[in-house]
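Reopening this ticket.

The earlier resolution said the output was attached, but the attachment link was broken on my side. Pasting everything inline this time so it's all in one place.
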Amino acid sequence: MEKDENVKENETINESEITIENTEGETSNIQIADDVVAIIAGKAVSDAPGVYAMAGGFAGGISEVLSGKKNLSKGIKVDVGEKETKIDVNIIVEYGSRIPDVAFDIQNRVKTAVEGMTGLKVVAVNVHVQGVNTEAATEEKEDNTENEVKE
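Inline output:
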């Protein structure tokens, strides 16, 4: 196997390998890195209504600040097998959102995106709600109070 210059000496990349057969009966392999699955899932989650942010660890937040780029795999953990995957999603919801609806929507979005783009069967999407953003609710309450005072 050829050495990738972007991979450090002791770093390993987890990949799933998909074997496909073409119309002439020949087989070939496709390798999909776990990070690719995590990024696909993260993008699907970030587009879901009711999600304030992804809940990730301290290190993920620091790397996001330092790089200036949004880390789409933040808060996503994938367990990829040969033909299937299990995905854990850690989120912070917006105040006022109905959590079961947000979670169900995330599960559908992630399953559709990952299966559609990778061909892997998604056997589980576990949604872990780590917090609720109350800043919007506090700001709304302050705006209402200011309007009442002005009247």
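Reporter confirms the inline version is readable. The first helix runs from residue 34 to 46. Helices lie at 34-46, 58-67, 99-118, 135-150.
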